[in-house]
Design a protein that fits this description.
Helices cover about 30% and strands about 25% of the residues. It has about 450 residues and is an alpha/beta fold.
Length: about 450
Amino acid sequence: MWRSVRIVPGWKHTETVVSVPADKSIVQRLLIMSLFCRGETRIEGSGFGSDCISTARAVGMLGAEVRLECLGGAIRVSPSPEGLVQPEGEVYLGNSGTGMRLLSGVVAGYPLDVTLTGDESLMRRPMGRIADPLRRMGAQVDLLGAGERPPVRIRGGRLNPIRYELPVASAQVKSCILLAALFAEGETEVIEPAPSRDHTERILMRWGVPIQCRGNSIRLRGYGRGGPHFPAGTWRVPGDFSSGAYFMALAAAEPGRSIWVRQVGLNPSRIAFLEVLSRMGAEVTVDREPEGEWEPAGSVHVSGQRLRSVEVSGEWIPRLIDELPLLIALGTLAEGHTIIRDARELRVKECDRIAAMGEALRRLGVEVQEFDDGMQVSGPASFTREEVVVDSQGDHRIAMSLAVLASYAKAPVVIRNAACSEISCPGFWELLSSCGVSVEDAG
């Protein structure tokens, strides 16, 4: 696993095809919700990142038997017949904010005393946003870190339905409440300020849960104190759109380049990046698989063009939240001023993504203006002609966004803390190399 990589600008291939690992947002939801199943749940995908593995281990600590089939590309989960069990010690979730927030909702429905913890990055992330609704539902939630941060101690039990308006659009917080609501008697309603990804709702619908989604309102009728019992089965997870986006961007800004990203998820709540690429001038073609699957999937073809700048704010932000650092990188290659606003959520991700991108871009010679809730970059940038060292700050989204930008730079770029790409896209650097980008181990 490379700690640092050196990217030499350029592409050796003008056309290429790539497939990306399984969508980590979906895999983690399935791992957690498999705790409600009777029998073995099989989750199939083309590869699982370290966030998925961390969540799988946490599920195992709560009483499930979890088996990872490396060759077969599957995770098999068989929950305890007694339901969740009291874990021995703290439940460690690595870097996974999804795992911590969603498991909090599940644990709240059981008469257990569970403490959830994680790595240094996860321990800096705000958890007050899940503590408030869970407390309103009747769970005892203690945030043991400073400033409403982890570890999260939950003492669960009988829960009440609530009507809750999210102050910030967040699929993780929404999902936490919905999973807890499964244990309440009566109807819970969650109202979002703007739509966020709906993987949790789709999975629950497939299991026949009484859930209604209308506009920004989601209503769910709970099963009461015993919670739900779902049938076990097999779930095939498409490739992660957010991982695929880096390869789409790799071709987008250079006329004559093109790429196919195969077997990738095309959930409407996740693909706003394709609309933005089209607005910027790239040629985007989507080949959708036949309808009928619980999660839409297909292939995306991107042909490069001279890009123009774009402004993104408001309801676009939750639909683009994972791709915003990449969009900032693309903005340096586009004509004009690319502006991101209403994205203060970037400040509280694995790192402060606004500050991290700003620091790296300045090192590369890019004109940057930071806002409290976003950033402006001007392009096409006059990149420095000397080798530059930048740091991902241990954030997978920053590392992969900088890798794409480095392929367009004027001189080699060394990216430190590069191994964090394994969180969401295992084998990213090898995939990048297969696309014709020169990737070297920099120690």
